[in-house]
């Protein structure tokens, strides 16, 4: 079926990922910008709210980068994890880690990957190189199947989710994720994150960045770089993220108006591999 529900489910998972905690590289080079230049922190307030007039000259649109762009190429060779993403959970003592293993497939008569065949583990600790604790989670795949001649089906890589709990607030953790039972390459390189502070009158995220409609366009990278330079403690991503539904199932070039460009399409198609460029 042209499965609205599996598509929605995938979108839901990406929405979960929208509360991205800072990725390591951003925090590393941002640490010397703290409070000096750029956008003030919440702790420097309170401020009178500032409203900027909408600048139409900034709304020129930006075309999707093709999947052949090196920035969207797979970063890891299976079975190594890729698209590793952090998301805030209910409190500063917990955090979601998500990633993908295996390759998505597009074509005919596909056999989905088996999510039970690979473990979902996060090894972590408070000292670099010392990952003394392990948390396990769950894995799934989703498929987008179209019963129309000429349209291709899609089945995803294995999508893993692990929730870390009982973390200490305001603390840096070092972690690797993946499957430690594999003989080689099952775990990612070491990465790190810092947990949010425990809520208190003088302890809260110093800068919260909000971004929407990020896409995978010629301007997404400069937007993300701009966010990172301002050293946010938390990024709230409100979507949209990848415009997979501006494409035919056969890929090609995305269009701004699907029904205008493809009036004969039997259904609104989408090219799910656009999602797979996310967080690479
Ligand atoms: C935005 O993208 C367009 C191409 O789509 C490019 O010409 C322009 O330089 C980009 N601007 C920035 C700031 O990256
Ligand atoms: C896609 O999957 C559907 C449902 O299983 C099937 O009817 C259809 O033939 C498949 N399409 C291709 C191109 O394999």
TrEMBL record:
GO terms for molecular function: acid phosphatase activity; metal ion binding. It holds the Pfam family Pur_ac_phosph_N. Residues 1-31 form the signal peptide. Coiled coil: none annotated. Residues 81-195 form the Purple acid phosphatase N-terminal domain. Keywords: Signal. Gene3D superfamilies: 3.60.21.10, Purple acid phosphatase-like, N-terminal. InterPro entries: Metallo-depent_PP-like (IPR029052), PAPs-like (IPR039331), PAPs_N (IPR015914), Purple_acid_Pase-like_N (IPR008963). This is Purple acid phosphatase N-terminal domain-containing protein. It comes from Lolium multiflorum (Italian ryegrass). The lineage of its organism: Eukaryota, Viridiplantae, Streptophyta, Embryophyta, Tracheophyta.
């Amino acid at each position: 079926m042209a499965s609205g529900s599996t598509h929605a489910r995938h979108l839901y998972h990406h929405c979960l990922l929208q509360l991205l905690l800072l990725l390591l590289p951003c925090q590393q080079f941002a640490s010397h910008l703290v409070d000096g230049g750029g956008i003030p922190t919440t702790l420097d307030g309170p401020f009178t709210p500032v409203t900027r007039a909408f600048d139409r000259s900034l709304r020129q649109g930006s075309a999707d980068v093709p999947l052949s762009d090196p920035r969207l190429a797979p970063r890891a060779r299976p079975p190594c994890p890729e698209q590793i993403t952090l998301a805030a959970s209910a409190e500063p003592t917990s955090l979601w880690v998500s990633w993908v293993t295996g390759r998505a497939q597009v074509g005919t008569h596909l056999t989905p990957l088996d999510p039970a065949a690979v473990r979902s583990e996060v090894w972590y600790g408070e000292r670099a190189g010392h990952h003394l604790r392990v948390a396990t989670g769950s894995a799934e795949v989703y498929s987008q199947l179209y019963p129309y001649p000429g349209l291709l089906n899609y089945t995803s890589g294995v999508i893993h989710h692990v929730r870390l709990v009982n973390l200490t607030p305001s603390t840096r953790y070092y972690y690797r994720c993946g499957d430690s039972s594999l003989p080689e390459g099952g775990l990612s390189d070491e990465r790190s994150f810092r947990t949010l502070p425990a809520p208190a009158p003088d302890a809260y995220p110093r800068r919260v960045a909000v971004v929407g409609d990020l896409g995978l366009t010629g301007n997404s990278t400069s937007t993300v770089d701009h966010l990172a330079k301002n050293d946010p403690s938390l990024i709230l991503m409100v979507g949209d993220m990848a415009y997979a539904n501006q494409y035919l199932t056969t890929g090609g070039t995305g269009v701004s108006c699907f029904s205008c460009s493809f009036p004969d399409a039997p259904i609104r198609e989408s090219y799910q591999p656009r999602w797979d460029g996310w967080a690479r």
